[in-house]
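Reopening this one. Same input as before:
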Amino acid sequence: MRPFVCALACALAIVAGGAGAQEGRSPLADQADSRMQQAAASLIPVLRGRWLYADQKLVVGYVRDVRVSRDGNTLIAVVARRRRLGGGEIGIPVPALHQRDNDITVGATRESVRQIPLLVP
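Same output, byte for byte:
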């Protein structure tokens, strides 16, 4: 019975030690997150519902939303891609978008737009 108690105590110490090893978020990281969220929120009224064009006036789809990427470093425009290009929602980094006259464009070909992976919900 005694070896079982020792093994259980060791297992609990390892689990408790692992939980304490997680580092907390710094106030600087929280402030950066907040600024990225504010930037995304400010771009939503500007971009949402607008059509996105690629090279040679190819209609890619329309912008549904603007989000912060999973790594928290980039703003992503969520675009509802046309069925002819594969359908589904894709993410395009906002810095890759350009405005020409009243159109929002991205430098991409038909094939490169088709190869953009779908966003995971």
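So the earlier flakiness isn't reproducible anymore. For the record, Residues 27-114 form a domain with the SH3 type barrels. fold (CATH 2.30.30.240).
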